[in-house]
Design goal:
This protein is α/β, with parallel strands linked by helices. The protein has helices at 9-20, 25-32, 36-46, 55-68, 79-91, 96-105, 114-121, 124-129, 166-169, 210-221, 244-250, 266-275, 290-301, 313-327, and strands at 159-160, 176-184, 187-194, 200-205, 231-234, 253-256. The N and C termini lie far apart (76 Å).
Amino acid sequence: MSSYHHLTLQEREKITCFQREGKSLRAIAMALKRSPSSISREIRRNQVASGFYITEFAEKKSKTRRSVDRPRVLHRQKTAAAKGYILEKLHLSWTPDEISGRMRREKQPFYACPETIYKFIYSQEGRDLKIFNFLKRKQKTRYFRHSKRPIEPRVAPGASVHDRPKTIENRRHFGHFEGDLVHCQNGNITTLLERKTRMGFLIKNTSKHSDLVVSGIAKTLIVLPPKMRQSMSMDQGKEFALYQRLESNLGVKVYFCDTHSPWQKGANENFNGRLRHFFPKKSDISSVSQSDLDHIANIMNNTPRKCLGYKTPNEAFSAALKGCCTSS
């Protein structure tokens, strides 16, 4: 099949002449060796308001439409700067959405929407550079995965997430956390996430014994003002069996999610997915120190988030902590 070519100025002049002679669309198409539908579409799209087809007007209208209809891509003169910015932020584990949002927030002289950045990553150039390795999931192709539902040992939980006050549900107040355990080889990592600011904390554990896990959570939260550590939502894994210590020693109200319901602490699940960029499944963390985790947490907390208006969790949490200290 031959490829389609846009009508030339000479062909448009002939259409004008043939129309004045009263020739039909099929006759015009046969004379120009074009399909009748092409001629019909040309006249319909480029005629003047009165219904007449005028060569100069049709040519100008077609050129204008072709310039407007071009897909939004990185302009040639700004491509190098934009690609450099994108690659720099991908190295910092930012997502395409976060990179795009931060471009707009910082009022950069260039801009690329998330889809444009994804197209760059999965273009031939991006594949040759293996840029997809900097994405959270390191997917070689774009596709969706169905989340798995691991079976976890249950503990006798206290309050249910369904009993949480609306002030926790709507994320209007600070100090409400979500907690989980990310399993690795030779250890695991406790992840804590403040629901409103998305500020995350990472704690290394050498085992999943509840005494060790809960003690690590207590040491992390005790340095915060009481107003900034009010509640915590977690699943029913046995590593949280000694949750009463948090309630009695720190005054933190603990709520338990339903079994197989990770969406009830969705912000923490999202944070865990981001952490997997640094520690894929079956990663050996025996040589990873707590200072290493603190460094990784700092990178994650200085990544802009769409839900925060592309502010970073660190910026949001620092503002909240400052306001809490000022009010007290």
